[in-house]
Amino acid sequence: MFNLRQANLQDLEALIELRLELLREAGEIKGDSDTTNLAEATRKYLGEKMPSGEFLAWVAEVDSQIIATTGLVFFQRPPYNVNLSGLEAYIMNSYTIPMWPGQGIATALLKEIISFVRATEAKRLWLHATEDGKRVYEKLSFVSTAKEMEIV
Asked: Topology of domain 3-151, per CATH?
């Protein structure tokens, strides 16, 4: 079975590698492209944003090896009718390594994030979904909108 926990800076290299794998699968990194600059930029971003709480991540591990992750970014918009605080939460970087699909790992990570966000002032939780990911998100009450999916 897998263990879930919030990621920390000790997980930095694993989070970078999982993000690069996600981008490869999404076609944003082509073939054997050099990812040195992207990895370094990601290292800098996570190194700054994780300690400040501007980027949060949860991981699933088996035998102390990280096998999946999901990230979360909060941002503030001007208030609007259904969100007077303006605080929104965006789920990103959801990725499970290929040898662990269909075992409820992504669902478990998302449930952790949803629970975490519901304890905040954020009134909107949303994400962009791949076709493969839509069924996982729909099981957790996300609905499709014109450009993304969100919990209403």
From this structure: Aminopeptidase (3.40.630)
